[in-house]
Model the fold of this input.
Amino acid sequence: MTERPTALVTGASSGIGRELARVFAEHGYDLVITARRRERLADLADEIGDRVRVEAIPANLATRNGIATLKKGLASRGIDIEVLVNNAGAGASGEFAGMDAAKSLTLIDLNVRALTDLTHFVLPGMLERGRGRILNVASVAAFQAMPGMSVYAASKAFVLSFTEALSEELAGSPVSVTGLCPGLTRTEMVDDLQAAPDFMFASAADVAEEGYRACLAGEVIRVPGVANQALVTWLQYQPRWLKRFLSGVAGRAAFAATGDEAATARDIGTPA
Done:
């Protein structure tokens, strides 16, 4: 019997991460799933465990201890990761001056540090075995500064830049790196935007399917949705001052729509 490849999906307890775990399982990948919420991981493992092998390793990747727990769990199980899906992420909106510093640093630790650390951990093995794929979940927010979501957008800009640079470093190698840049997607991270019309949102399942296809095709950047693709293309040709101004207008409108007129900091997502 041919051994199935294994995909590691972080932030698998909900949203895009959960759907990515499902789609990789549908295509015959064994899974290692991780997130903070042990019960949700267990539920997902029960759902897809009749098709593929699923290892659930609960860990809070916003902490160094959590990252160490995951790496120790992988090493003790002797699991070779063929696909790394760096999906775990958090976001917060509000004016930076009103945001708790610890919250901002936790966001950076999860969105940036954990992704970088895990990529360092799995990449040498991929190169040694002669195969591997990395899927980093960024955002359309990576393409421009976003007043009102300054730290989140900056963290996703890191993910996009890192993905593109690493893909060039690995050009000609057996390992590919893909950045998935979704726009508004119906997940727990956007619960505050329920007032926005449904047509503005993609489903997490559709985004995950696009991410899977892009990853397997070795694409460097995938932006799901025609409207998002048009927006990203348009932004490339605009002066930075105009992009900042328009992002500020959009941010203030979002605060007004959610009743947050003082634009004080609040979570729009917690470490998955």
